[in-house]
Structures are given as structure tokens and as C-alpha cells.
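Work Package 4 report. The design task specified in the project plan requires that, given a folded chain encoded as C-alpha cells, an amino acid be chosen for each position. We show below one input record used in the internal validation round.
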């Protein structure tokens, strides 16, 4: 069976990102790729990135503050805990992956 991915490129609204997570959960999407200025899911983000060498400014942008994370969680309705995701600062970097 083929894998099903969603790419979110420069989606500024955190509420819309939450909605994408909720819809992806309902459609059994295998992974969401958040790119550019798209906000990130708060769930497991700290543990996923804590031990990686990542620019501190980029890390704080991705993790965001509590109110930013709440905006995603509010519309995702728990789906942010179950749908895997990856972040890429530039969408074209996805073309380097073998899908």
C-alpha cells in the first residue's frame, strides 16, 4: 500500500495547522511535512529535537510559546499527538527524500 503524505508549505495560521492535523488523522495520513513558516505541533517536539544540533532561533520558532502551541492543540483536538510530522525550513529539501 502506498504511503500518504501531506506537505504544508508556509501556512501561517496555527489554527489551520491544527485543522490539517485533525484532517490528516481522519484520513490516516502517514506523515505531515511542515515547511517554511508553517507552525509545528507541540507534542513530542521537545523530545524529538532536544538532542539534535539545531539553531536556537529556529528551535524557538518551531516550538513556539504556550499560547502558540495551544492554538494548534485547540483545533487539532488530539490529532497532534498521533500523526507523525517532520519540519523542513525549505520545501525543496523534500525532493532529496526517497518517497
Amino acid at each position: 500500500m502506498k504511503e500518504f503524505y501531506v506537505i504544508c508549505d508556509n501556512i501561517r495560521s496555527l489554527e489551520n495547522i491544527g485543522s490539517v492535523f485533525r484532517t490528516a488523522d481522519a484520513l490516516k495520513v502517514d506523515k505531515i511535512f511542515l515547511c517554511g513558516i508553517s507552525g509545528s505541533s507541540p507534542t513530542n517536539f521537545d523530545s524529538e529535537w532536544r538532542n539534535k544540533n539545531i539553531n536556537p532561533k529556529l528551535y524557538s520558532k518551531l516550538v513556539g510559546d504556550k499560547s502558540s502551541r495551544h492554538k494548534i492543540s485547540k483545533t487539532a483536538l488530539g490529532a497532534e499527538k498521533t500523526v507523525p510530522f517532520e519540519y523542513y525550513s525549505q520545501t525543496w529539501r523534500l525532493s532529496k527524500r526517497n518517497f
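The longest helix spans residues 14-26. Validation will be extended to a larger panel in the next phase.
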